[in-house]
Write a structure and sequence with these properties.
The chain is of the alpha+beta class and 318 residues long. 44% of the residues lie in helices and 16% in strands. It is extended. 18% of the residues are buried.
Length: 318
Amino acid sequence: MAAIRQHAFRYIPRGSVPCLRGPQRRWAQVRVVRFFATHQEPDRTIEKYIEKLNKKVKEQGLKSIKEMIEKHKKFSRLFEKSAGMVVPSDPDASISSQNSSYPRPPPPPRTPSDISSTPISPFVTACSGSTPPGVKTLSSYIDVPKTLELPQKEIEYIWRLRHAADAQSLCAVIPHSTYTPIEATARRHPQFILPLPREGQGAEIHFLQWTFPTPTTATVLFTHLAEYKLRGEFSQPHTTVTHHLDLAGPKDLVLLQGTVVEGRGITVDEGKSLLMCLQKFYGGGNEMGERKKLLEQFSQGDGGFKVEVLLEEAEKVV
């Protein structure tokens, strides 16, 4: 039997069993997974985003997304103006002109006819009584109703005592009659430069800018001219001075409060010097003559503006 089995196995054809070896067919397909991962999902995200925008448009009672964008742009401009921000009309425009090394003057002030002809948004009318964010009014420092009951001497004493503990503060009490011409000049010339003498180094030029965030506050920002030319409206002021007019009518007093930022290259005494120099150019009768001419030349961007004359006028005692 063993011999028969061996003989039978000899005639089995090798390699011809179909179940053991046969032609292999591949049905696998190659798909571009990257396409599905990067192109289909963003489309769904954009659709969801558009749905949300359309929902906002319907909630605000508008007709299209474009109309909603334009509406928000208008509100942004109004907020910037109400906060006293300087917004350049051309973002690519340089701060100083080619023929002058000083910043461009501000646009001319609006006339009463222009202001009256400008339509006022109901939203702005509703918010006009509120204080812009970041602005401290007189009520942030003292109790105004109780202060109105005190005589002028006591008010001055309390105001100076209120800031005596702060070594970086500036404090003063100004008669309203003295402040009135200063504000009038500031509204005509809201930007200017002032020199600060440095012993053995000549003078350092500083840029100042007036803002009027509320009807009872007027603020002056002092910045290094070199920094302002480099960063424009994004430059950080080293000294901030605010005039409070809440007591101007009943008490004939304007309370001044300021701060010199520590570590910005200016001392408190130098901040006081800048304030005294500001009063020389913006105050009353002293503005006449060369000082008035310098203010007008700077505001108009006149090429005849000379730093030498500015230094001479700043060094004068009166």
